[in-house]
Amino acid sequence: MAKITTTKKAPAAVKERDSAFKHALDEFRAAELCMEAVRNDGRAIVYVPYEFRTTELCHEAVRQHGGALKYVPDELRTMEVCFAAAKRGGEALRLVPWDLKAKIRAALASS
Known about the structure:
Structural class: mainly alpha
Helix content: 55-70%
Distance between the termini: 46 Å
Shape: elongated
Number of helices: 6
Radius of gyration: 16 Å
Number of strands: 0
Number of domains: 1
Order of helices and strands: HHHHHH
Largest sheet: none
Strand content: under 5%
């Protein structure tokens, strides 16, 4: 069965077999609830299941609380996500990958 992580994937899963529809709805609702929790408090990312930690959700978490970068998977620590975290200050810059630190510092200096 196809894994449902976005609304774009839901129709494919539903076509795969009828029982996928319920699964698609359950997963979509779970993803929406995770995003809502993170919108309310970025630190809620710590409770978000790994499979729901998308770039969008991680960006929202660090925008709310820079220290949430600690819970962003390495592969999602993009320039945009790290910059949003670093703008919040605190420990966030310490959590930025080495290859992005100089770019982040330059971007912070020019903003």
